[in-house]
Hints:
This protein is mainly alpha-helical. It has ten helices and two strands; from the N terminus they run H-E-E-H-H-H-H-H-H-H-H-H. It has a single domain, classed as Farnesyl Diphosphate Synthase, CATH 1.10.600. Helix 1 crosses helix 3, helix 3 runs antiparallel to helix 4 and helix 3 runs antiparallel to helix 7. The radius of gyration is 18 Å and the shape is globular. The protein starts with 7 loop residues before the first helix and ends in a 10-residue tail after the last helix. It holds the Pfam family polyprenyl_synt.
Amino acid sequence: MQIFQHINDDLDQVQNLIHKNLYIRNGHIKDYVKQDVSYLYNNLRPALVLICHRLFSPANRQTVALAAVLQFIFMASQVHEKLSEDGTDEDNPTDTRTDCQFPVLVGDFLYGKFFTTLCNAGIVHYLRNMAELICTINKNEVTILNNPDLAITDPLAYNDAIRGESAELLACGAYLAADLAGADNLAKDMLYQLGLNLGMAFGLWSRNDSAPQINEYVGKAEYILHQLPPGKDKESLQALLSLFAAEKPELQLMVV
Length: 256
C-alpha cells in the first residue's frame, strides 16, 4: 500500500531534488555508501512536512526544499550511525582501501546539502533550528550506541534518547512546515506534538520495542490527529499510526 499516495506528485518533486543533489564529481553517493530504499525510509519525513504545510496552504518550492532538508539530515545521521567504534562500516567491514572514509565524507556531504538547499530556497532563517536538531540527533545516537542495554537498565533515559535520536526530527519538520505555511502558534505547537509522538512511535517500532510502549505514543498522536480537519492528509497519518500499532518493523519493506 502507498500510505502517502495522495501526495505522490509532491513527493516526486522532493525525491527529484534530493536525487539531483546526491551526485559527487565522480559519481553518485550510492557508489560509496549503502542506502536503505524502503518506502518509509525515503518518504516518512518529507511526507510529514508536506502534509503539515498542506493543512494551511498548498505545497510550493519552499515546502519541497524543507522536506528535502529533513531527509538530508536523516540520511546523514544514518550513514554516520552505521560506522562502528573501530572505524569500520557495518555494511562493509572488509573494506580496507579507505578505512571507511567514504561513509564519513558522504555523511558530511549530506549535512552540507541541507545548508545549500535552505539557502537556495530562501529559508535560511531555519538554519538555527536545523543546526540544533543535528546536535540533538548526534548526541542521542552516541548515547544509544554507547549503552546497548539502556532500554533495560534505564527505560526513562532510553525513551529520552529515542526522542532526541528519532522523534525530534519529525517534530521539527511538522512545526517548521506549519510555520512556513503561516500557521498560528497554537497550530504549530499542536503539530510539533503530533510529530513528536509519531516520531516516538516510529523510533520504538523501528527498534522492535514492545507494543505497549509503541501504542502509548500512537494513542497520544491519534488524540491530536482527531483535532485536524478531515481529508486525505488526516487519513494517511491515521493509516501510518495504525501500521505502527499493529505491525512488526520487518513489514516496513512491504509498504511500497
